[in-house]
C-alpha cells in the first residue's frame, strides 16, 4: 500500500515540464449540519499525511469555522488578516497535531465576497504561492448550499460530500449534488458515509444516493468509503484531540484509514491545471466577480 501511495505522490509531483508539483484542491461539504463533516476533514487530512502526503486544511466554513477548535488550538491569524494585507499567506498558516497545516477562516470569507478587483488579485497572488507547497489543499466548506459554499465547490471541481444514514442527511446530500450539477457539469462528486453501524448500512446509504443521481441526472458518483460509528469520536472532540490521534485503534480510526487507502489508490492525479491551485483561483476569482 505504501508503494502505491508513493507512486501517486510521484505522479502528483511531476505534472509537466513547466510545473514541479501540482497541488490538488478538494472541497468537503454536506447537505446539512451535524454529520461530522469538519471532524472528517481534519482526520482525513491527518490520515493522508500519515501516508506520506503533505496536506493543508483551509477552513472555509463561514460563521461556524471550527477546525482549530477540534484541535484545541487558538489561531492567532486567519484569512481576514491576509485580505487586509496585514499578513502574508505564510503568516496565517498554523500547525496542529502531527504538524498538520491549516488556515483558520474566521470572518475572512465574509470579506472575500466584497473585495475589489485589486484586492482579489492580491488574494490570488498570495494563495497561488501555495502551489507545490503541499500535495493537497482541503477546503472544509459550510454545510448546505450557501452562496459562499457554492463558489468553493464550483471552483474546486472535486468535492467530497459527507452524509450519514439518516434520511434527512441523505435527502440533503442529494439536494446539494442536484443543485450544483444543474449549474456545472465539471464538478466531480465523491461520497463518504459517516457514522455507519456496519459496511452494509454504508453501502445501502450510498446506493440510495447513487441510484437516484444516475436515474435523474445520469451522474455517476463514486463512493470513497464509510466511517464506522464510534463513541471514541465524541470523546476525542471533548478532549479537543483528533480521534485518529486520541484513539488510533478505534473503529472510526481504522475505517477512516481504510477509506484513505481507497482514496489514494483510486485518485487520479490532475492531468492539467483544472484541479490545481492556479485553476482553482482563476475559477474562484471569476465566480466572485459575477
3D architecture notes:
This protein has 290 residues and is of the alpha/beta class. The protein has one domain (24-288): P-loop containing nucleotide triphosphate hydrolases (Rossmann fold, 3-Layer(aba) Sandwich). Helix content is 48%, strand content 16%. The chain is built from 13 helices and 8 strands. An 8-stranded mixed sheet has the order 3-4-2-5-1-6-7-8, with helices on both faces. Helix 8 links the parallel strand 6 (158-163) and strand 7 (188-196). Helix 2 (37-50) crosses helix 12 (251-266) and helix 8 runs parallel beside helix 9 (199-217).
Task: List the defining traits of the structure above.
8-stranded mixed β-sheet; alpha/beta; Rossmann fold; 8 strands; 290 residues; 48% helix; globular
Report low-confidence residues grouped into runs of 5 or more: 11-19
Main sheet makeup: 8 strands, mixed
Content of β-strand: 15-25%
The number of helical segments is 13
Q: Looking at this structure, what is the CATH superfamily?
A: P-loop containing nucleotide triphosphate hydrolases
Structural Rg: 18 Å
The appropriate CATH architecture is 3-Layer(aba) Sandwich
